Predict the 3D structure of the following.
Amino acid sequence: MALSHALVREETHESTASLRLRIRQKLEAGCLLYESAPRLFGAPGTGKECDACGLVLDPAQLVMAIPLPHDTTFVLLHGDCFVLWDDVRRKPT
Ligand SMILES: [Zn+2]
């Protein structure tokens, strides 16, 4: 019982760690911004892919839409991915 619980925790931790790495790579590649979002919109999912984890943004989920300063497009993130991005971009290696 205790062992399976530990395994589940470890698995969750692992996927979060790999997502953090993916977000950091996107920051370094310029696909995500280091700056904090001056404006932010909450919107329902559009069926497009999340710019952090790459999974589809389901219309039933709340999506964070961050306007790019020099573009007319938006960075679209899951709520959870937004929280991770906001954390990763504050801690550059
Ligand atoms: Zn995501």
Q: What stands out?
A: The chain has one domain: 2-88. The longest strand covers residues 62-67. The CA atoms of residues 1 and 20 lie 29 Å apart. The pocket of zinc ion is lined by residues 50, 52-53, 55, 77-78, 81 (CB under 6 Å).
